[in-house]
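[Meeting: bench + compute handoff]

Bench side (C.D.) handed over the final construct sequence. Compute side (W.E.) agreed to return the predicted structure before the next meeting so the bench team could plan truncations. Sequence as handed over:
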Amino acid sequence: MIRKRTAEDDRQILRLVEEELMPLARHAFPDLKVTMKQLRQRMKRGTVYVAEEEARGKRRVAGFVIAVVQGSNLWVDMLAVGKDHQHKGLGAALLTKAEEEGRRLGCESSQLLVDRINRRAQTFYARKGYMMNWYVQEVQCYKMIKELAVSSASHHPHQAGLPNQPGGSYPIVYPGWP
């Protein structure tokens, strides 16, 4: 089940960040750390959706995505699925949910940064229609972009203050997390 994040999900989201995303980011920034306070600050920038699964009567966050809208652009800030839940379509479902949010708010494109060494994610996003746009040396990530079909009736511009320019700030800013 995909639903919006609640504060009760935050510890499990932090665990996913530490287990799935930080090992990749640490290839470029070996001393990188993330705290709960930093994560919550980052999540405030957009809408967070979680993929929830039930096992042995307990509900567990199996994955999450942060969707940040900047003008006519959606930024998929972070997307992670726990190892035990991968290859079940949860990542695709979370990405679709974020893209739906972007379309609803009038976004014309969806953008994201993916770590240079994360070939699996690069392939995943390419299969979902994303194309590499450029390499962002400062964070050792590729920027990937996908055009979103938007109906004029759904256009509701919303600003989150994230520039969309080469060399500018991006939702993923490792050295000074968040």
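W.E. noted at the follow-up: The first helix runs from residue 10 to 25. C.D. will use this when planning the next construct.
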